[in-house]
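Lecture notes, continued. The same structure-token format from the folding unit now serves as the input rather than the output. Read the line below as a description of shape only.
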């Protein structure tokens, strides 16, 4: 956001705030003119450094059941999708996106990709609202009905993801984006409840965005998975915009000798399984509340072991025309996935005169899903406020927690120089 700044007097200053996840797997930093009289803007970024870790496979983390079904059996850790969907479980962040193209025979308008590729900037993606009951709108095997993701932190960071689909009449390539920007739909003079409405996507790629590629296969056994990082340029994949971080074969999570030990794995249901949410497959004779064989996909990544950061804002599940990085994207399910974030506020006079004593109050709130540890708080007018912030209880903030501290300042005679 932007705001008006008066050119007169001594400006109140800018606070540069840096905090890290308590698990030390990522860095969330915020900087900008903090909200208050005179101006307001803020931006966020993330970075990470590779740690020496005892690497754990995605399916053997003890956090999540990657067992070809969505039901938590038995209850408690490791979690499963049913516990998270019902408001229980131990995830630090969770998102569930309903994207039903058909539900009990009722037509539902479904935004799908009109033109988009994973190697292109988000601002170039286009969507169209399709009536999924009309022939040709979207191949039923590529029609995502629901998509979901979860994050867990404990020294290492794990991401788990999944989707279910409308029919299983063929292989369907799938992808999952974990994006640091806030991404949304921008209709072009129409509304999302209107068939044929088109538009673009807001948001941009940031270095460290994570893309996972795999597939629902006809045979049901997941034999490949790729994890890529968006780097913008200089990468080894996608014309340089992506960096391949992991490529595995024989990575079905159900295989205890190979897939379960891999840093990334995925699996597909091999028999009819219960659905913990409203679901009806598209095949004739399907039973409500049941996933027929090869309709449910789930997977996981040990993100830390791949040297990747974890401060994401958006989750996007996609279906794709092929396994190629340049494949045309088909359906998508888009939702907020607030892993970590910081809101900062500075109240006090926007402008002051030399010699005037001014009182300011700084407030810091952890808006993310994981605990944060303050690294630094530097104001360009007031100097290093880190120790003041730590003394006030801002050194470590649990998810949703906040703190505040006062600072007095008198502009010196050379403040206008």
């Amino acid at each position: 956001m932007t705001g008006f700044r008066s050119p007169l007097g001594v400006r109140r200053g800018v606070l540069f705030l840096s905090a890290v996840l308590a698990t030390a797997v990522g860095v969330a930093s915020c900087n900008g003119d903090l909200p208050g009289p005179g101006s307001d803007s803020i931006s966020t970024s993330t970075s990470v450094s590779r740690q020496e870790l005892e690497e754990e496979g995605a399916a053997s983390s003890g956090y999540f059941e990657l067992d070809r079904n969505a039901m938590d059996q038995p209850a408690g850790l490791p979690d499963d999708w049913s516990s998270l969907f019902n408001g229980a479980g131990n995830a630090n962040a969770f998102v569930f996106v309903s994207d039903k193209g058909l539900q009990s025979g009722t037509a539902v308008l479904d935004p799908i990709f009109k033109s988009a590729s994973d190697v292109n900037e988000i601002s170039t993606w286009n969507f169209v609202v399709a009536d999924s009951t009309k022939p040709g709108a979207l191949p039923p095997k590529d029609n995502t009905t629901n998509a979901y993701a979860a994050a867990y932190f404990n020294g290492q960071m794990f991401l788990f993801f999944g989707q279910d689909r409308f029919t299983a009449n063929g292989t369907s390539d799938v992808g999952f984006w974990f994006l640091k920007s806030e991404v949304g739909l921008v209709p072009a003079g129409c509304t999302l409840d209107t068939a044929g409405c088109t538009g673009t996507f807001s948001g941009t790629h940031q270095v460290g965005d994570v893309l996972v590629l795999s597939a629902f296969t006809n045979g049901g056994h997941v034999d490949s998975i790729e994890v890529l990082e968006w780097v913008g340029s200089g990468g080894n994949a996608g014309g340089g915009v992506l960096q391949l971080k992991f490529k595995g074969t024989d990575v079905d999570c159900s295989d205890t000798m190979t897939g379960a030990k891999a840093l990334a794995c995925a699996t597909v249901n091999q028999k009819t399984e219960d659905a913990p949410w409203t679901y009806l497959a598209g095949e004739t004779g399907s039973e409500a509340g049941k996933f027929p064989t090869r309709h449910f996909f789930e997977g996981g990544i040990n993100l830390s072991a791949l040297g990747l950061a974890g401060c994401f804002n958006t989750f996007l599940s996609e279906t794709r025309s092929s396994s190629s990085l340049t494949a045309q994207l088909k359906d998508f399910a888009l939702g907020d996935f607030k892993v970590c974030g910081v809101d900062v506020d500075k109240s006090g006079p926007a402008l002051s005169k030399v010699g005037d004593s001014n009182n300011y109050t700084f407030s810091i709130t952890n808006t993310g899903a994981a605990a944060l540890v303050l690294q630094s708080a530097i104001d360009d007018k007031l100097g290093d406020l880190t120790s003041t912030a730590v003394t006030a209880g801002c050194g470590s903030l649990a998810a949703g927690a906040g703190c505040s501290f006062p600072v007095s300042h008198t502009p010196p005679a050379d403040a206008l120089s």
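Point for the exam: The first helix runs from residue 81 to 85.
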